[in-house]
Amino acid sequence: MADPDGKTGASRELNEYWTTGEGKAKWATSEHPFITLQTLLLQHMSLREASGLAARYYRIVFGRWPGGGKRRS
Fold it and tell me: Which keywords appear in this protein's UniProt record, sorted alphabetically (predicted)?
């Protein structure tokens, strides 16, 4: 799922890098993709920025927000 309006996160190039191809491959198939992506982003920004951007990229890639898990009855 691509970023429909191109307004998520930083530049269009960074958005595309982290949500497609090589950048996406670094985190999307890991056991804990949100944490992996957040850790990668922390090398370049504050915890607050990395957490928010990781959540947005996670939603773009998986179509849902992180942390939802399975619904409990």
Answer: Plasmid
